[in-house]
Write a structure and sequence with these properties.
Order of helices and strands: HHHHHH
Largest sheet: none
Helix content: 40-55%
Number of strands: 0
Number of helices: 6
Distance between the termini: 58 Å
């Protein structure tokens, strides 16, 4: 029988939890949301190397091999919230298309998601009914 695999250092055994600066935490959060280092550098108005250096500090503090691994460890340590964010689903786009602030809704938006899917379904049906896409 093999032992369970553990990613990163064991902080659950009473060891110290790594302390991240605000900038390091923001970097980790933004990477978890899918942003790249160049996007973050442009938003922070700094050079790309500055963001890479911040990322390297995060890796060292969390004992990670790469930034994706760091996000994984941060979720395990409950530094990052693993729950699905509002922007992770189709209802988010429905808010944007209607000109609403998509971040104002902190709960899931089933009606927004349904409206978005209805629109996408109608668009697919319209495309399928155009002469160049008909098979019969």
């Amino acid at each position: 029988m093999t032992a369970p695999v553990q990613a990163g250092p064991s902080f659950s055994s009473g060891g110290p939890t790594p302390s991240l600066t605000d900038r390091e935490f923001e970097l980790l959060t933004r990477v978890a949301h899918g942003e790249s280092y160049p996007q973050i550098a442009a938003d922070w108005v700094v050079e790309h190397i500055t963001v890479r250096t911040t990322g390297a500090r995060v890796l060292r503090k969390l004992g990670a091999n790469n930034i994706t691994h760091a996000v994984f460890i941060a979720v395990q340590l409950r530094i990052l919230d693993p729950r699905r964010r509002h922007g992770d689903h189709a209802g988010f786009m429905a808010h944007q298309r209607r000109g609403e602030d998509p971040w104002a809704c902190t709960q899931g938006c089933p009606e927004g998601e349904r409206a978005y899917r209805r629109g996408r379904r109608a668009a697919r049906q319209t495309t399928a009914n155009t002469p160049e896409f008909r098979t019969s």
